Amino acid sequence: MSARKLVYLTSLIILPALYLLFYAAHVLSRGRPLEESLKWDGLLLLATIILLEQVYGYRYAVSQRSVFIRDIIANVVNKYVTGAVTALLVLPVLLYVPEHFLGRKVFLASPGELGPFWLQVVIILLVVSFFRYWMHRLQHSNGFLWSLHSYHHRVTDLRALNTDVSNPVDFALRNVVIFLVLGVIGFDPLAILLTVPATNVSAGISHWGADVNAGVLNYVFVTPEVHRWHHSAEVPEGHKYSVNYGVEFAFWDVLFGTYHLPQKDGQAMQPARIGHPGGLPDEPNYLKLLLMPFGLYPPSWFKREAQPAE
What is the reported pTM? Predict the structure, then answer.
């Protein structure tokens, strides 16, 4: 069997294999300390996807060399800094409200009151994915939130390294706050530990720059075939802002009418071009990504920036 044929055949099964592998790894590692799990799980997934990008290259790939440093910085910040800073700032507020207005320090004193462990895992997965779907939609429709989120849409190709290319505030609103809320409500810390990295599996794989055929999985998970349409430079006809807002699961888009994955001859079609819907080029300067949405970038440089399209 030729190497090319082997690559093609394995491309048909590699995506479900990855989902099974990483979800199983999270289940088996539930006893590990929280800090260790959050530190290494995301890094292992990222390294695996980067390696596989060399095997299953996307046929319409666009070079990302000019933004390599930006991507590295964004990954370090959003994987290892944003969560801690958000918890430091938001947790006191989340704890203050129930303590002073609801007459208790936490919503529920015992995690067991929320049901058995397996049920809590299911509830957390559904609540987190539901919240992320609607927050993501809001980040496309609200002007200020779009000014934060739009930098993520200036990437010209989906790659593992630009999965976390996002303003930290934008990233925290979509990926961190909901877990803090669930923790304050009283869900079992181990259930949260299991779902934090698990919900990031398909989110990480969604930016995999590879030619893979996901088949029926396209209607369950946010696969690369599905997520490329969310990053299309041209918003599909019939949709105002974008499509495929789900972060990990695609069935929310199917349910709420925002799913888009056209077919031709039984195969999923892909957008002609990935990029900002307003035509803005990718931004290699991390400081601009970080400061410009708040008007904090040096004025002498800020004035030279092209104004984003309405």
Answer: 0.85
CA–CA gap between residue 179 and residue 135 (Å, rounded): 14
Which pLDDT tens digit goes with each residue over 90-105?
988 887 766 666 655 5
| 164 or 3, higher pLDDT | 164
Express as a percent the part of the chain with pLDDT over 90: 49
N-to-C CA span, the chain? 53
**What is d(CA 206, CA 46) in angstroms, rounded to the nearest whole number?**
11
Q: Which of 107, 90, 120 is nearest to 198 (CA)?
A: 120
